[in-house]
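Posting here for the record, re: dTDP-4-keto-6-deoxyglucose.
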Amino acid sequence: MSLVHWIELPKFGDSRGSLIAIEGKRNIPFAIKRVYYIYDTQSGVARGFHAHQNLQQVLVCVSGSCRVVLDNGEVRESVDLDSAHLGLLINDMTWREMYDFSGDCVLLVLASAYYDEADYIRSYEEFLAKVEKG
Ligand code: T46
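Prediction output follows.
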């Protein structure tokens, strides 16, 4: 089963340009408790390298592009984010790495929970041990 779950965000466009509306529990499958965005990422930098124990997130590349690697301990998949109307849903216990940020990349992230450092698994070995245990 693929780890890549896209959410199509409806685009309202007219002669003035485009508008996308995001609503928790409507076009996003959870109540949105937190929003953050990653931008000005320096060339060659990679981010992420962790999993979450209890967090769902949707990543939307609202400008530019980047690449996201997802890994559930068995399957590893790489996906390009370059569209403001596509959200990438990442469920908990999924290892993620982000690469190849374009200079104009703005990566918007919608999260199901408030920030909690204790929710992060930052060691790949620890992540594998946890998924193997089930
Ligand atoms: C994720 C990927 C996609 C906060 O104080 N509050 C926050 O809500 C977040 C997300 C981060 N921070 C602080 C913690 C660190 O001192 O911001 C700093 C950078 O965070 P981090 O190194 O975790 O950033 P990334 O880009 O590696 O990962 C982030 C999210 O943390 C993570 O949940 O899934 O983006």
